[in-house]
Design a protein that fits this description.
The complex is a heterodimer of chains A (about 250) and B (about 290).
Chain A (H helix, E strand, L loop, with lengths): L5 E12 L2 E12 L3 E5 L6 H8 L9 E9 L2 E2 L5 H7 E4 L11 H5 L1 H4 L7 H14 L3 H4 L12 H13 L5 E5 L7 H14 L4 E5 L3 H7 L2 E6 L2 E7 H6 L4 H7 L5
Parallel strand pairs in A: 3-8, 3-9, 6-7, 7-8
Antiparallel strand pairs in A: 1-2, 1-4, 4-5, 9-10
Helix pairs in contact in A: 5-7, 7-8
Chain B lengths: L1 H4 L1 H23 L2 H15 L5 H5 L13 H33 L3 H15 L2 H16 L4 H26 L2 H9 L4 H29 L3 H4 L19 H9 L4 H35 L1
Helix pairs in contact in B: 3-13, 5-6, 5-8, 5-10, 5-12, 6-8, 7-8, 8-10, 9-10, 10-13, 12-13
Classes of the chains: A alpha/beta (about 250), B mainly alpha (about 290).
């Protein structure tokens, strides 16, 4: 693990909702171009943790962060959140394509919403590339100008992945991206994630232990806001060092 | 089984049920009866006045037969249109503020209460205020002052519906936009507002339907005019003013025309209400 380049590093990261401390002194180094799964029981701060990484956390009224988060060598807490979010994309629990936009416009939303003008040919290229990466191109290439909300749940979620990829982020955060999908769509997204790590670092929150086992290279186990264990997935799953990880993995609590 | 044991009991229960349902249906229809009586009455008296000439001709001088209400039709569209131009931008901005920025703050609460109070101000008082604000400084009656009065009446309606509609836009859409690195104000402008646009339009239509028939705010603002005018600085005629002035005149032909104008105005407002209903249903269907 020491040999892999590190893309995200947090130092003594704490996150609060008002007086409630949701993330407690987390120090972690996330390796580049790998899939890192964030696991743990409900309410353990998994989602809060990744929402710190693109600074969505601080949008919640009363929420704040202390500590340091480095993206490569830059402390992102000192950057403009808008700059951070261009580099760190996000896919949410429920597919959320923009209902007023077509499939084509949804993919380009990262440019259009910012008022960035791009020539038609470049736009066509970006759309095709992002949709191909998201394994959606073949299904939608003839209906690019229909509303994105007409697609099935799994297709909508891949559309959201394409939308995030279109702005070429370095990291893609995924917050339980398959929890609202059926098994077939889930499998498609899982296969996609494994392909995507060629080009982008993925940090995925998941409730689903077998899923983490199938797709992730590294696993971080959170419990009550603390980072209990972090290491290569195979090691964490077969030989957990912390008794709490073992209890969770063997189903003693969830 | 019970049916076999107590057949008469069962029958009587069914009969009671029918009676109660019948009574409830009749009671439910009661509120609709005045509407139909009004419509029948207006149509009976007003249809005689209606003809293409009535809609497209100018009024004749008193005592002369014939003439139409073309200037009042134009005036109503003009005055209401101008009040939309004045009132809607302010209202949408206020609605956006309440839903996206103010939320539960003190200032937002004050604005909400103010809007509710403004909505409760009697329309005649609104007319007097517009008279003091616009007519007196200008020195004469004008369409503009009428539009200001009507804008004051539509603002609270549009503010509150805009706020409610924007609050219905799911937060995950805001987050999707923010996560792409889009600033909040652009998210509001390009994601939240377009998503709620049908609802905002419905609110505007409801407000227009409310103000189009208002008479009191126009009495000492737009005032009325026997001639056609397109100048917002001049007094202008409007359908409610025609109805008011003609109905209180001593000429029988004008009474007839007042009924005709009443038909036109009523069906305009009815049409707007139906249209806003249809739009509202479309929003409900999308959910």
């Amino acid at each position: 693990m020491e040999t892999l380049p590190i893309i995200f590093r947090t130092e003594d990261l704490c996150a609060y909702y008002g007086d409630f401390m949701a993330i407690k002194h987390v120090t972690i180094s996330i390796p580049e171009k790998q899939v890192t799964a964030i696991m743990g029981p409900s309410g353990c701060g998994k989602t809060t943790f990744i929402r710190c990484l693109n600074r969505l956390h601080e949008l919640t009224p009363g929420a704040r962060i202390s500590g340091k988060i480095f993206l490569r060598d830059e402390d992102i807490l000192k950057l403009d959140p808008i700059v951070v979010r261009r580099k760190v994309g996000m896919v949410f629990q429920r597919p959320n394509p923009f209902p007023t936009m077509t499939i084509y416009e949804n993919v380009l939303a990262g440019y259009k919403l910012l008022g960035i003008k791009i020539p038609r040919q470049v736009a066509d290229f970006i759309v095709e590339e992002a949709l191909r990466k998201a394994a959606l191109w073949d299904e939608v290439k003839d209906i690019l100008h229909r509303r994105g909300t007409f697609l099935s749940g799994g297709q909508q979620q891949r559309l959201c992945i394409a939308r995030a990829l279109a702005v070429k982020p370095e990291v893609l955060l995924m917050d339980e991206p398959t929890s609202a999908l059926d098994p077939k769509a889930t499998l498609q997204i899982e296969n996609l994630i494994v392909e995507l790590k060629e080009t982008v670092t993925i940090v995925i929150v998941t409730h689903n232990m077998p899923q983490a086992g199938r797709i992730s290279d590294y696993t971080a186990f959170f419990y009550l806001g603390e980072l209990v264990e972090f290491g290569p997935t195979a090691e964490v799953f077969t030989n957990p060092k912390d008794p709490r990880t073992e209890e969770y993995l063997t189903g003693k609590f969830s | 089984m019970t049916g076999e044991t107590y057949p008469t009991h069962e029958k009587r229960r069914g009969f009671k049920n029918k009676v109660i349902i019948g009574v409830i249906v009749i009671l439910a229809l009661l509120p609709a009866i005045p509407l139909f009586l009004i419509l029948i009455n207006i149509l009976k008296e007003g249809l005689r006045a209606l003809s293409p000439g009535f809609l497209f001709h100018l009024p004749k001088p008193p005592g002369e037969e014939g003439g139409g209400i073309s200037n009042a039709l134009v005036g109503t569209f003009f005055i209401v249109g101008l009040s939309v131009i004045i009132g809607v931008p302010i209202s949408i901005l206020a609605g956006v503020y309440l839903s996206e920025y103010g939320k539960d703050s003190k200032l937002a609460e004050v604005i909400r209460i103010s809007a509710d109070v403004l909505q409760g101000v009697p329309s005649i008082v609104i007319g007097i205020v517009a008279y003091a604000w616009v007519v007196r400084p200008m020195g004469h009656f004008s369409a503009l002052s009428g539009s200001v009065a009507l804008a004051l009446m539509m603002i609270p309606v549009v503010v509150r519906t805009t706020e409610e509609v924007l609050r219905l836009v799911p937060d995950i859409l805001r987050e999707a936009s923010l996560a792409l690195g889009v600033p909040y104000w652009r998210t509001v402008l390009k994601v939240v507002l377009p998503t709620g646009m049908v609802g905002v339009t419905t609110g505007i239509l409801i407000a227009v339907a409310r103000i189009a028939g208002e008479t009191a705010p126009l009495l000492f603002t737009a005032f009325g005019n026997q001639f056609m005018t397109w100048n917002p600085m001049e007094p202008m005629n409007a359908l409610p003013l025609v109805i008011f002035n003609y109905a209180t005149s001593p000429y029988e032909d004008w009474w007839r025309q007042a009924w005709g104008a009443a038909v036109v105005l009523t069906f305009m407002v009815l049409g707007l209400n139906v249209l806003s209903r249809l739009l509202a249903r479309r929003i409900a269907g999308e959910k």
